[in-house]
Design goal:
The chain is an alpha/beta fold. The longest helix has 16 residues, at 164-179. Helix content is 32%, strand content 27%. InterPro entries: AAA+_ATPase (IPR003593), ABC_transporter-like_ATP-bd (IPR003439), ABC_transporter-like_CS (IPR017871), BCAA_Transport_ATP-bd_LivF (IPR052156), P-loop_NTPase (IPR027417).
């Protein structure tokens, strides 16, 4: 479905991604694990066209996204929830969601299906998003992305700084999206946030995917976690 084929990416003259390749299928959750600076976030930005690969390709259902301007990528069915959420703080919950709907010309039915995943947002529609709790802001960021009805959802550390109950809500929503056939690429730092929801795990080091394993293999042997992330995770 989505294939990242041997991309090289730079910030200025500093190379961050080196011949990085990965793939994710419909109805699958692929987690990217690795230390800070390994290239995980840059991979998501490269998929979205926010960082332009100098070589390689990002292909979704036969379309080379890496040849498109960044604003065209969401229209092909890729949604991105960046680290830090990037909500429009002065706009209401409803207004933030409306922006998501406009990106792919979706309607009220799409909004209703999205809000079914995050019922608490129904009670906050007129509230400014900047006044929500951290967990509610993360739900809104995900809901806004889902208003695109994406084929692929990119999540950059969605559980960072959240209380356990909110982490469980986010995790449950990811599982439901997988069951609905959405492909999810999840960037995380903590293996305990990954094991309950991922199907496969890609370990990233120095801008490359070094190993990819299914989650059941990882449950039985955490040596790769210790190698690429650290003993404390």
């Amino acid at each position: 479905m989505l294939e990242v084929r041997g991309i090289d990416a730079f910030y200025g003259e500093v190379q961050v991604l080196r011949d990085l390749s990965l793939s994710v299928n419909a109805g699958e959750v692929l987690c990217m694990l690795g230390r800070n600076g390994a290239g995980k976030t840059t991979t998501l930005k490269a998929i979205m066209g926010l960082v332009r690969p100098r070589s390689g390709a990002v292909v979704l259902d036969g379309t080379d996204l890496s040849r498109l301007p960044a604003h065209e990528v969401p229209r092909h069915g890729v949604a991105y929830v960046p680290q830090g959420r990037r909500l429009f703080a002065e706009l209401t919950v409803a207004e933030n969601l409306e922006i998501g709907l406009m990106a792919r010309h979706k309607d009220r039915d799409t909004l209703d299906r999205t809000l079914a995943l995050f019922p608490v947002l129904k009670e906050r529609m007129k509230q400014r998003s900047g006044t929500l709790s951290g967990g509610e802001q993360q739900m809104l960021a995900m809901a806004r992305a889902l208003c695109l009805e994406p084929k692929v959802l990119l999540l950059d550390e969605p559980t960072e700084g959240l209380m356990p109950s909110m982490i469980a809500t986010i995790r449950d929503s990811v599982s439901q999206l997988r069951d609905q056939g959405v492909a999810v690429i999840l960037v995380e730092q903590r293996v305990d946030a990954v094991l309950p929801v991922a199907d496969r795990v890609a370990f990233v080091e120095n801008g490359r995917v070094r190993d990819t394993v299914d989650v059941e293999t990882l449950r039985g042997d955490l040596s790769l976690v210790h190698k690429y992330v650290g003993v404390g995770h």
